[in-house]
Amino acid sequence: MDYDTVNYQTQIKYTASCFVFLRKQNFVQNKISGIGYIDVHTHHFNEQANVLGLLNVYPEDLIPQQPYLSCGIHPRQINEQSYTKELERIEALLKDGQLMAIGETGLDKRIDAPAILQEEVFIRHIQLAEAYNKPLIIHCVKAHNDVIRLMNKLKPAVPFIFHAYNQNAQITKALLNYPVYFSLGKALHHANSHAQQLLKTVDLNRLFFETDDEKTNIAATYCKAAEILQVEEAVLIEQIKNNFAEVFSITFV
Ligand SMILES: [Zn+2]
């Protein structure tokens, strides 16, 4: 994702004023009702009652009072002086039961932060995910082999959800040997993208859809996927709900 701090802060204020609306979505004892679409990674508050949007927040943010949150240190935000405190904040949120997932976190070879520091912070997120049994939302740019190396070393049991996934068949095949899921978003709308190819070849039980930092409707991505696969959208809605229920240990009623 390409985050925008100013917009995000505006979003958080908006979120705080709207949380009562979200509470209408039933979230009691891990049972969720009234959901159709799932947006597994978004930076924008979602106000549609039939959409479950897993809202990404950063440790320094005011945490919105809504049940579907993930929190992590994006590789671009890593600050050597403050990351330990931020990880403590994430752990406090986990202890409080406020997070459904950890992330986005990961490795990014486009940015200046030293690889060794990125890896240290990423490993700490993986260890937290293991300790609290939460899925990870993974941000990975040109570093998939490094993530595989870490999975081999750490042998995590929790699922890794690669967000904004748009990699070639060779990388996808290598990743499928691990407990990973692919979240498809913007790239699915681009003709002949890797994401479009992947959608046609990978088992649907390894997929999610997302809007990330785009201000688009998640339904448009479901619609595009249904068109590519030539299936009814309802088939995808059901499948992604099943995937989400399994990965996040919740029940849709
Ligand atoms: Zn993102």
Written overview of the protein:
The protein has helices spanning 5-23, 83-95, 115-132, 144-154, 169-175, 194-201, 218-229, 233-248, and strands spanning 27-28, 31-32, 37-42, 51-57, 69-71, 101-108, 136-141, 160-162, 180-184, 207-209, 251-252. It has 253 residues and is an alpha/beta fold. It has one domain (5-11, 34-252): Metal-dependent hydrolases (TIM Barrel, Alpha-Beta Barrel). Strands 3-4-5-6-7-8-9-10 form an 8-stranded parallel sheet, with helices on both faces. The protein has a 3-stranded mixed sheet with strand order 1-2-11, covered by helices on one side. The longest helix is centred in the N-terminal third of the chain and has 19 residues, at 5-23. The radius of gyration is 17 Å and the shape is globular. It binds zinc ion.
What structural keywords apply?
single chain; 253 residues; alpha/beta; TIM Barrel; 8-stranded parallel sheet; 3-stranded mixed sheet; 8 helices; globular; disordered N terminus; binds zinc ion
- End-to-end gap: 32 Å
Radius of gyration: 17 Å
- Strand residue content: 15-25%
Which small-molecule species are bound to the chains here?
Answer: zinc ion
Query: Main beta sheet, described?
Result: 8 strands, parallel
CATH superfamily: Metal-dependent hydrolases
What is the helix/strand order? HEEEEEHEHEHEHEHEHHE
| CATH architecture designation | Alpha-Beta Barrel
Tally of alpha and pi helices: 8
Strand order of the largest sheet: 3-4-5-6-7-8-9-10
Which structural class is indicated by helix and strand composition?
alpha/beta
Round the mean pLDDT to the nearest integer and report it: 89
The number of strands is: 11
Helix coverage percent of residues? 40-55%
CATH class: Alpha Beta
Poorly predicted regions: 1-26
User: How many separate domains make up the residues?
Assistant: 1
